[in-house]
Amino acid sequence: MQIAARYQAVFELISKVFEDKKPADVIINDYVRKRKYIGSKDRRFIVETVWDIIRHRMRLEFDAKSKDVRKVLLVYLKDEDFDIITGGQYGFAPLSSEEKKWLKNLSDEVYPEYVENECPKWLFEKINSLSMVQALNMSAPADLRVNMAERTMVKKRLESEGLFFTPTTYSPYGLRSSERVNLNNCIAYHEGLVDVQDESSQIAAILCDVSPDEKVIDYCAGAGGKSLAIAAINRNEGVIYAHDANFNRMDVIKDRALRLGIRNIKIVRILDDSSYDRFIIDAPCSGSGTLRRAPDSKFRLSAKHIEELNETQLEILETAYKSTKKGGYIVYMTCSVLQDENENIVSAFKQKHQDMVFVNHKNLWEEKIDTLYPCNSSDYVKLSPLVTNTDGFFFCMMKKSLK
Question: pTM of the full predicted structure?
């Protein structure tokens, strides 16, 4: 592809991404899949450029004094030779005389702190931690979970395929690469030796402390990441019931379970039991803890959406309370760093239900994970890029009193 055609592809992609209706990775993958004529080098250039623009969107829009996608891209390219990077039958359109004048007269201004740190103002204020926002702007590593195999052996298998990982700090099942990894042609992946899962989610699955003889439900199972990890930890012993309000979201669980050799997950459409020993909630949330991986997602959030999520989170906890037997456990977790979705939710729930008691998470951690407890409070576990070099994650286990 000519360079002008590459930038036309970039323009088409960010035009769709900046509509803020679908995840950027979905848009990018769909675009590339439908254009098989795009070579690997061109594809890499286009994809990396799009992600670079996404990661600097706040500053680019501020500099352009506009959300117009063409103006944003022109600001991004302002130091390039437009005679080279525009024009041709399939290329990015050349600058008009008005655009040349506009671009020449752009003035430099000091960024507001939220713009400098690439975070919408309302979300910047809600996170209320400059260091956290900055950490969430960093690129995330690629984490894998070793599935029912010895980690050192799997690490060597991956190395034989030219993929180099180091053991994760906390999860005994985790392997990490600082570079993006393509597993499409990875034999170890297709043989079910590894699955893609951030270390924070691996830790959560371990801390769920599921015993094979318990009646357990993963209530917001989604694509089944937690269920699959728990099943692997218990080596297919016991049964894990998987449920999701959006039943079709669980379609992928069967294929994932088949590849991973998992046989003890039972998908259920209706919750019709009130005697669960362990009710696990990976609650729908803002996903603010995963902004390192999905920097575009913050532009699809709003304060109103967070309020709606809070209502749903409390409703799900009420469902869990009714469905968990006395002496049983409710596990509430999110991939969010927002207090609104974490501490505030479990505090409100616990205040309403005085028979719910926080487990000692420091003791739980030190029993299940052979490292020092990294958190401040024993009432819940808060993971983050700052504290544990993982995605932002909140985990809280509560026990229902026998009385």
Answer: 0.93
